[in-house]
């Protein structure tokens, strides 16, 4: 009961913040004002209700995104709701039991199942067992690209060959040519860590960014390729040329500048850009980007594993921010210190 009430207080605190807090100006945001993976004002009420076991607001939210063709929002909400259900799934079980053929309940259930399979020691086998469910959901989505994004993620973990992956990609872009989540899924498949190379990933990312509409987050896809290039050892095609990394950073900086400081929509792209700038030692630009981020820290990339264990994403964010403004590095975890506002470490990242 105590844990449930703590979770509820955290979600309500984040909801109030999202509704009433003014947009922060560029510049320093105190540590206690930083939120990790803060839900937006549409998702927060659905998470509050889910914490109380009520799936109806989540069902209405996803039905609205499906009906209005809000595919980017829909993708984020499906992922966040599945992350919430990973820790507290009674509301999703109740929703799926009440409406077993509801496409939104099926999609969240499938997203959760794929996540659990990815974490299994027998990942490929577990993912292959989910193939009929993924295929069914995708086939029944005549316009929605989100099931196809999930199918792309599933195929990568199930060791699907290039022909299979390309066929899924064709179906995804037929529904939404510039869907950010589908492009990220394809970039991961093409990365040196999986079935491609640094060169292949950059070629794909740069072409996608060239074709993207102004203001689309796909325009920052090359900086994601740069992130992989900084973390994954060189493959047969060698290291990532510095010129390509510089161009990727320039694209992402230009895209970030198109949004107001403290805007939650590009938060993950801005966090990723700040991470890359820190890794490159471009401290002044990184500090400016942290100013644009405002209070919106994201689990990716700060929670990505280094070595055997994942990192504390909030600690990683704050420590990197300290580094670029010349403060001593943080060496102790933040849990139990009382730092931070309600909502921090909430229901998972995108």
Find the structural class using helix and strand composition.
mainly alpha
Strand order, sheet with most strands: 1-2
- Mean pLDDT across residues: 87
Question: In total, how many beta strands?
Answer: 2
Termini Cα gap: 27 Å
The helical percent reads: 55-70%
How many domains would you count in the coordinates? 2
Low-pLDDT ranges: 1-7, 18-26, 331-350
Main beta sheet strand tally, sense and closure:
2 strands, parallel
Rg on CA atoms, Å: 20 Å
Morphology call: globular
Q: H/E series, N to C? A: HEHHHHHHHHHHHHHHHEHH
List the total number of helices: 18
Strand content: under 5%
Notable characteristics:
two-stranded parallel sheet, 350 residues, mainly alpha, 18 helices, 2 domains, disordered N terminus, disordered C terminus, globular
Structure, explained:
The chain has 350 residues and is mainly α. The protein has two domains: 1-40 and 205-350, no CATH class; 51-190, no CATH class. The protein has helices spanning 2-20, 43-51, 56-68, 71-87, 90-98, 103-118, 123-129, 131-139, 146-157, 162-175, 180-190, 198-211, 221-231, 242-257, 267-279, 283-293, 299-302, 313-324; strands at 35-36, 296-297. A two-stranded parallel ribbon has the order 1-2. The chain is globular. Residues 1-7, 18-26 and 331-350 have low confidence and may be disordered. Residues 337-350 have a biased composition (Gly residues).
């Amino acid at each position: 009961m105590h844990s449930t009430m703590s979770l509820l207080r955290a979600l309500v605190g984040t909801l109030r913040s999202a509704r009433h807090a003014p947009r922060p100006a560029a510049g320093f945001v105190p540590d206690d004002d930083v939120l990790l993976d803060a839900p937006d004002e549409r998702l927060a009420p659905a998470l509050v209700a889910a914490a109380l076991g009520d799936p109806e607001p989540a069902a209405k939210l996803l039905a609205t995104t499906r009906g209005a063709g809000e595919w980017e929002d829909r993708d984020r909400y499906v992922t966040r709701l599945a992350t919430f259900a990973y820790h507290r799934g009674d509301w999703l079980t109740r929703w799926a039991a009440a409406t077993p053929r509801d496409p939104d309940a099926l999609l969240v259930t499938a997203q959760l199942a794929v996540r659990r399979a990815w974490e299994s020691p027998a990942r490929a086998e577990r993912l292959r067992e989910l193939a009929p469910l993924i295929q069914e959901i995708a086939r029944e989505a005549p316009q929605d690209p989100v099931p196809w994004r999930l199918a792309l993620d599933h195929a990568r973990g199930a060791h699907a060959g290039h022909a299979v992956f390309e066929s899924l990609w064709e179906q995804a872009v037929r529904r939404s040519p510039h869907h950010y989540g589908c492009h990220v899924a394809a970039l991961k498949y093409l990365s040196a860590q999986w079935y491609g190379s640094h060169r292949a990933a950059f070629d794909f990312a740069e072409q996608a960014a060239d074709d993207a509409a102004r203001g689309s987050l796909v325009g920052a896809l090359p900086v994601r390729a740069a992130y992989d290039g900084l973390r994954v050892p060189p493959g047969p095609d060698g290291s990532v040329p510095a010129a390509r990394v510089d161009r990727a950073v320039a694209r992402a900086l230009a895209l970030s500048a198109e949004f107001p400081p403290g805007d939650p929509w590009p938060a993950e792209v801005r966090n990723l850009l700040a991470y890359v700038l820190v890794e490159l030692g471009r401290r002044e630009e990184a500090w400016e980007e942290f100013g644009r981020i405002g209070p919106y820290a994201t689990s990716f990339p700060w929670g990505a594993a280094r070595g055997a264990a994942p990192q504390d994403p909030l600690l990683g964010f704050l420590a990197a921010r300290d580094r670029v403004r010349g403060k001593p590095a943080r060496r102790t975890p933040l849990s139990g210190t009382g730092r931070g506002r309600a909502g921090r470490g909430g229901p998972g990242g995108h």
